[in-house]
Amino acid sequence: MTDDNEIGQRIRAIRRRRGLSLNTAAGLVGISKAYLSMLETGSRRVDSRGLLDRLADALGCSVLDLTGEPYVPAHRHTADALRAIPDIQVALADTALDDVPDLPARPLLQLVEPLRAAHVAYMDQARYDIAGRGLGRLLADLHIHAVAGIAGERRQALELLVEACIVAFGVTKNLGHPDLALMAAQRGYEAAKLSGDPALLAFAGQRRGQAFQRVGAVRRAGSTLRQTLDATMEAADPSAQDTRAGEGVGLLHLTAALNAARRGEAETAHDHLDAAADLATWTGERNAFAQHFGPANLGVWRISIGVELGEGARVVDAVTPTINLGDLASADRVAMLRADSARALAQEGGARDLDAVRQLDLADRTAPARLRQDPVVRSLVSTLAHRAPRRTWELDSLRHRFGVGSPAVNS
Questions:
Q1: How far is 409 from 411, CA to CA, in rounded Å?
Q2: Is residue 408 pLDDT above 60, yes or no?
Q3: Which of 39, 62, 281, 315 could form an SS bridge with 311, CB 3.0 to 4.6 Å?
């Protein structure tokens, strides 16, 4: 059984180890003493990633120290997927872009199909057990081709390696290993730089920025995103038939918008959103590197950013009618649309909690392995259950499925 308020208990324990009073710690976070006390006791719960970042910074610890990741698997797909983590870790640790083992690798053309299948399983199906299967060996083989392979194949190997690192980033991050996700994102960024392709660099830089965000390094995420935008923006040419660079730059703007929102910089966030919207108007619905950039995905990001800015239900009510779910074509994107909509509705203080529960149930049924390992979503389940006026089957079911406040259920 997991406690309803593990994050709050960790906040209190670390604050006391640091010798900080409630008043001092609250001042460092930028919230009231009463609010911090409620977070510690569980009468309020952490409802945004920006708040997690500020708490970790004020207490001088990692976000992972507060969330306690990785969690006990609450879904059979997650348990199966976790078997891939050691092989991914070894592949990234035992290879570099200037140092690979003197071992034979499978022919490069034999690696394309399994890599594309892994990417679809990760992004479109949210099936990390399938995406992670054999991913460590794929990473190792692609490193060997990129460094010591046939000269004429090295550029293609670098491109495929970037894609493999994007998959490794997503699988490890969503399974609660953001430190390993950062390692994968860094490697993908290095490979993209060596390739000389601005589109590759944009996609890899976007994932690198996300990886820094996920471990709470919001300042570094911001500088990474700015640098990558500066290096790739000219390649996003609306007169070009190839929209890949535009898609990548659009995603960079969206990630920069989210990063600004987590820092409370609303104007900057909306400036980046506007830039991404202009690019989405040009590209239309596209799917380079299985990232689904376009007007529909832009709507998903608008809600995510609105949550971090505390815009509540109004961003859901304004944006949801503009999103065509069929255009998303991705279980990951649909699940996050539902989950972030639930977070936004929950910001109304209870008035829209029934709608939030329904959205969260839809999100979990779309991508359970994606949702149940997410610390903010898990906190949301606790929040909704804590303030419900009475027990309901829907909320109890969510608690059981997430393993929050009740025995974990493998379903």
A1: 6
A2: no
A3: 315
